[in-house]
Amino acid sequence: MSSEDAQAWSKIQKVQLNNQTRVLDEKTHSRVTNKLKDNKLITQYYDDVHTLYDGFMRGVRVSGDKPCLGYRPDSTSPYKWLTYNEVKTRSTDFGAGLVNLCGCEANPEQFLGVYAKNMVEWVIAEKGSMFYGMCLVPMYNTLGDQAMRWICEQTEMEIMVIENGQCLKDFKRDVLDHDEGKFIKKIILITPTDNDTNLIEEVQKTGVSVFGFQEVETYGKNHPLDHVPPKPDDTAVINYTSGTTGNPKGVMLTHRNFVADAAGAMYMLPRPFTGDDVWYSYLPLPHVFERTAQVCLMKVGACIGFFSGDIRAMPDDLKNLKPTIFGGVPRVWTRFYDKIKNAGAGSWFKGMLVNMALKSKIKEVEKGVCRNDSMWDKIVFKKVQALLGGRVTMAITGAAPISPEILNTLRAAFGAHMVEGYGQTECAAACSATLPGDHTGTVGCPLVCNEIRLDDVPDMKYFAKDGKGEICIRGDNVMKGYFRDEAKTAETIDAEGWLHTGDIGMWCEQGNLKIIDRKKNIFKLAQGEYIAPEKIENIYIRSSAAMQVFLHGDSLQAFLLVFAVPDPETFVSWCAEKGFKGTHEELCKNEAVKKAVLADLVAIGKKDNLKSFEQAKSIHLDSDPWSVEKDLLTPTFKSKRPQLEKYYKTEIEQMYVELNKPK
User: Fold this and answer.
1) What mean pLDDT do residues 107-122 have?
2) What is the pLDDT of residue 246?
3) pLDDT of residue 244 exceeding 60
4) Closest to 648 (Cα-Cα) out of 571, 567, 550, 554
5) What whole-number percentage of the chain has pLDDT above 70?
6) Which of 117, 166, 332, 356 has its CA 20 to 30 A from that of 636?
């Protein structure tokens, strides 16, 4: 631990796992973490880091000529690296080019759009705009045309950085050819090719100037400009949330928000990040989880290696990069879990060995021990650990709930500390996280940068006096508001500065927080029962037969329906154990198989004390996974409920007809 890290960690204290929080305000029942030595929230990890600019410059200071950003030129190449000094130089050149060639203004009212996958140039564009005080507006390449047009129109976007000719073609079709794209005046193409010449000419005929990324960098290099650093309360980014309904909302996050949340997150780790750490960047950079992780890592001068562009190449990327920290959303972790559970498939002896190893190591995990040097690691889990490159000692999960069984299995097999974070875009990523050794299935305690309170939800019979209610957050990590939407901002942040999340939480006996329900998306059945579908889906997803789950209900109907996509890698063997044979597609259509899967879901629901009216009465199995490209999932892999209801409209009608037939 460096002297600066030692000084940072001296601000906090160790916490007993059975006493994680304390009440800050008896009237509101708000709580803070017992990591705080007093009741003053901590908003900086390093005393000299007040903005993202300060954080990156610190990384340059401590790791100047060491690797910063890595990429693979092609699928067979090892990683090539840019040093911190090289990233600083290229970003400075690009930023100066934005001002001197593209006519951008060096202030936070200047928006720079980025439409590209995770890559070196994404970060160069982000840092270059930041060096001159601008505000970034990143876009997911899977947002959809309507959302893209909405963002460009609402922000009156004038300049965009776009990845390649195909993305430019899509952007022209989805945005430039519509009235909403009228504000776009300049486009910077990251990787133009000779094949894009005609397309570029077509775009330019519409009055839009097209520059090459290298062209902007070179111009900036030849026309240097002193940095114009941002201020803490300047808007650093407008992060458009990948909403499940309606137009996305533009979350305005300031430099202060990011610095506070990054500090809070860093204090929850089992150890400080160091310049020797390596991170694998594959989660979309516009997603605040990935962005905040990189903010933390760049402050310490760590290495960030980008995925090859094809997620199917992840195993080979990880083999080459060998990260020390790995972050994932539950959908990614569930796939690793399935691989671990099926590691011994096809051999009675191997299966027995894997089960014995898991049982032994999970017992250790439940006692707070995570290690990768046991006998079982050498005999059974060495190949499993190689899936992540073989060097991961710390992992992070967030963006959606994940079951304790899956987490503890992963901790056991990978021999790595896994921290589960909870939060949302509106609080710059996390507001709580699990402490090392807390493997009880909660989302831990508040970060040191924010307090948490639970508000009464009378309609759902949750009351703060009972330690249950809607989770509300207050601290320097809470957003400035929604861009040009005062009404929605007022709905979300109250007059006292509390951010209302819509999630229902419960304070556990140890003082940690557990997510138990969802205030939003609730609906009534015909007999008046309230249903929180996401709560039930998070229980059903524990079934090894289901990879994706969607629960549907109707206020005119008395029954719930469930739609599930089994995992194609494991479902055939799951069915074989129950005497069913066939291909993945055939099994999904088999009525007896459907009944078996529904019975499994209901059994899991009973164990979790679901009431009878909360249990699905009919199931539809789909062999084709839901995806972002089909507009059935958000870019963070949350179900888009209205779209799924429309997608399965025919099946829903048929299932209700069958359920309502006279018996």
Assistant:
1) 96
2) 66
3) no
4) 550
5) 97
6) 166
Judge residue 547's burial from the number of C-beta atoms within 10 Å of its C-beta, 0-12 exposed, 13-18 middle, 19 or more buried. Answer: buried
DSSP 3-state of 564: strand
What is the spatial distance between Cα 413 and Cα 377, in angstroms, rounded to a whole number?
8
Kindly state the greatest CA–CA separation across the chain.
Answer: 82
Q: Is 609 exposed, middle or buried (0-12, 13-18, 19+ CB in 10 A)?
A: exposed
pLDDT of residue 451: 97
Mean pLDDT computed over 535-545: 88
| Structure token pair of residue 663 | 């018996």
CA dihedral (35, 37, 41, 42) positive or negative:
negative
Token representation of residue 97:
């080019």
Start-to-end C-alpha separation, the chain: 70
Domains in the chain (CATH in brackets) are 52-62+84-253 (3.40.50.980), 324-518 (3.40.50.12780), 527-659 (3.30.300.30)
Name the amino acid, one letter, at 230: P
Mean pLDDT of 169-178: 91
pLDDT tens digits, 546-563: 999 999 998 778 889 999
Alpha helices by DSSP H, 64-141: 84-100, 120-131
Q: Environment class of residue 465 by beta-carbon count within 10 Å: exposed (0-12), middle (13-18) or buried (19+)?
A: exposed
Whether 395 contacts 326, CB under 8 Å: yes
Nearest-angstrom CA–CA distance, 441 and 234 = 37
Integer CA distances (angstroms), 581 to 128, 261, 303, 385, 620, in order: 57, 50, 47, 32, 18
Give the whole-angstrom CA distance, residue 6 versus residue 81: 29
Counts of helices then strands in the chain (DSSP H, E): 23, 28
* Three-state helix/strand/coil letters over 122-166: HHHHHHHHHHCCCEEEEECCCCCHHHHHHHHHHHCCCEEEEEEHH
| 575 phi/psi in degrees, rounded to 5 | -70, -40
Using pLDDT thresholds of 50, 70 and 90, give the confidence band for residue 215. very high
